[in-house]
């Protein structure tokens, strides 16, 4: 068998080869590809929990690629198992180059579980460089159920800074109007 680099092992989903690489060179987990991504980041993109578990002890979970995206942000786009593994060792409020947080990524993906995992660790009122909040992003990406989930969390926690009074009342009552744009 040809010798495989860490990125090829992840891309080929070859867990045995990844274990071999990390056993002989644990620092390989900190190497980056041409986009500045680590093997941990690539594993998060693919939602490969077993790879994330294996790489996490050898990796810098807070490393960012050339766009400022962290492993948690990449996992937040629909891979809740990876989000659960990363939350204890990551900064959910970290921002990428456009000012997006992991919650914003989750809101755009429509992943109910990712949004639920991130909300208690995030500021739902945080805004991107262009002024969009996670709530705005959910609506922009036609993720109305996620918008309602975020809105409901904001009301339940009293963190209603980005909501107007009509939206607060609608979210609190659970009325169908709570999915309407604010």
Automatic annotation (TrEMBL):
SMART domains named among the record's database cross-references: ANK
SUPFAM superfamilies, alphabetized: Ankyrin repeat
Domain of life assignment: Bacteria
Protein name: Ankyrin repeat domain-containing protein
Organism, scientific name: Massilia litorea
